[in-house]
Amino acid sequence: SETDIEACKAALRAADVPLEDAPGPVQRKSRDFYWYSPILKRQLEEVKGDFIVSPRTEAEVRTVLATCHAHGVPVTVRGGGTGNYGQSMPLRGGCVLSTADLNGFEIHDGRLVAEPGAILAELETACRAEGQELRLFPSTTATATIGGFIAGGSSGVGAIRWGGLRNPANILKLRLLTMEAEPRVIELEGPEVHKAAHAYGVNGVITRLEVPIDPASDWIGVLVGLPDLSEALRFALAAGGQGDILCRMISVFEPGIAERYFLRHRAFLTAGEGLVGLYVSQQTLPALEAFVAAEGGAIRYRDGQSEQRVPPLYELGWNHTTLRAMKVDPDTTYLQMMFGDYPVAETQRLKARFGDELRLHFELTRIMGKVRAVAMPLVKYTDEARLEELVSLLEAEGFTVFNPHRVTLEEGGMKAPDLDQLAFKRETDPRGLLNPGKMIAWEDPDWKPVAGRTYLFGETAKEG
Ligand code: FAD
Question: Residue 188 in contact with residue 176, Cβ under 8 Å?
Fold first, then answer.
């Protein structure tokens, strides 16, 4: 049937579902951090939903889905709206389903059961009150939701111990509602979880989820200075592989980044040094101190040292590095890439070739038991053509680039359709109404990437 927005709104209002359609709030809740990318900023500037609903219960989510299905109205779920690839932006308009009021949770021994709209920082605080802690959270933890993290995020603080969200150790269960005339509940467990994790909400609306939690440690943030970038990276990789130093985060910054962008910390730092930021357990701090001394480094800063209020160290790392750089140098953008088995040599090669056009920042993660460096380099932005060219050049050098300047699942991530997620979408959303435009495979299961070319996901991109 044709899309009928007015009839859909009337039916939702009649069913008492909280609904907002004033242009201001609708505009605001149709946006996320897409403007992080100069390319997405141009492509998505005009994207806007028709109305916002804020269901308070799973039953209301069911009403929203059934009603929108009946009226052919697309539904795009929104958590905290901190995604930076336009994940939660309604490319084809329609209904934006806010999970803000689905925020209950229960803490058990070793596991957390939550509704999707619960804010991660609040969950961490509640877990800590019971002597437990989350395994993984993004640097946007202060405003991001757990549902948005699982559906749209990838990794974060904790990755040095637990790897990213793809590690099956990090999600226990997802409960979803399907987009059908009569929405069904589907529960995914174990490896099945992959069908809907990091799927941008294209194949079901998560209404409840379960993640493992661990006994809490006392973490202290420290910044360690080392003579240069290579030394800093070598130190970080060694510290991350050390069995007697327990870390929750290890970030590495090229000399210059901290002095220029870490405004509240720079008074403590020494100009020209490579910098390593770590969260280390209090108990293993002495082992770290000994290791720093042995490696010729120096602890420049530790939590509690500043008399001013300073941001937590995780708000210097992950994608917050880019945010801080953009505030000082607006012509900054970024990339995300995997380094191989010789990250120090690869780093030197990249610096020799690209100089200050790429300023390197790494986050350490554990992949298949091995400590690996993921880079989120700051890029000096000139124009779109050069940014596309940079991606191609880096890929030609053998790096895997997770392109953050793309709105689709495939182009950002694994560069190929995920056939399990596609099959699951056929089951859960046969009309293709959930977050349309984000999964290329839905329109073209045989899609293969062409260097430098953006997939045209609908009218917005075609006009752009
Ligand atoms: P949203 O942006 O609202 O949504 C994300 C996606 O999930 C959307 O596709 C949405 O449709 C879908 N979704 C939301 N709720 C549901 C649901 N209930 N059911 C189905 N689908 C749903 N990401 C990281 O992984 N690690 C980081 O360290 C990190 N750092 C960041 C730093 C900055 C400064 C910024 C701007 C972004 C960063 N991000 C990071 C990206 C983002 O903040 C996180 O992924 C965050 O967890 C997203 O949560 P959210 O609630 O804001 O989700």
Answer: yes
**Residue 460 falls inside a structural domain:** no
Q: Given the CA of residue 201, which atom of ligand 1 is nearest to it?
A: 21
Is ipTM > 0.95 here?
Answer: yes
How many other C-beta atoms can be found within 10 angstroms of the C-beta atom of residue 78? 29
Nearest residue (CA) to ligand 1, atom 28: 138
Assess whether 208 and 236 both reside in one domain.
Answer: no
Report DSSP state, residue 183. P
- Rounded to the nearest angstrom, the distance between the alpha carbon of 87 and the centre of ligand 1 is 8
**Centre of ligand 1 from the C-alpha of residue 424, in Å:** 21
Domain end position, chosen among 401, 424, 446:
401
10-residue mean pLDDT profile of the chain (464 residues): values are 92 98 97 95 96 98 98 98 96 98 98 98 98 98 98 97 92 98 97 95 98 98 98 97 94 98 95 97 97 97 91 97 97 94 94 96 93 96 95 91 92 86 97 96 87 60 36
Contacts of 295 (CB under 8 A, 6+ apart): 226, 231, 235, 238
Residue 20 CA from chain centroid, whole number: 27
DSSP alpha helices (H): ranges in 15-131? 23-28, 38-44, 58-70, 120-129
Mutate to test the pocket of ligand 1, among 319, 321, 333, 362 (most ligand atoms within 8 A of CB): 319
340 and 193 within one domain: no
State which of 57, 89, 140 you would mutate to test the pocket of ligand 1, scoring each by most atoms of that ligand within 8 A of its C-beta: 140
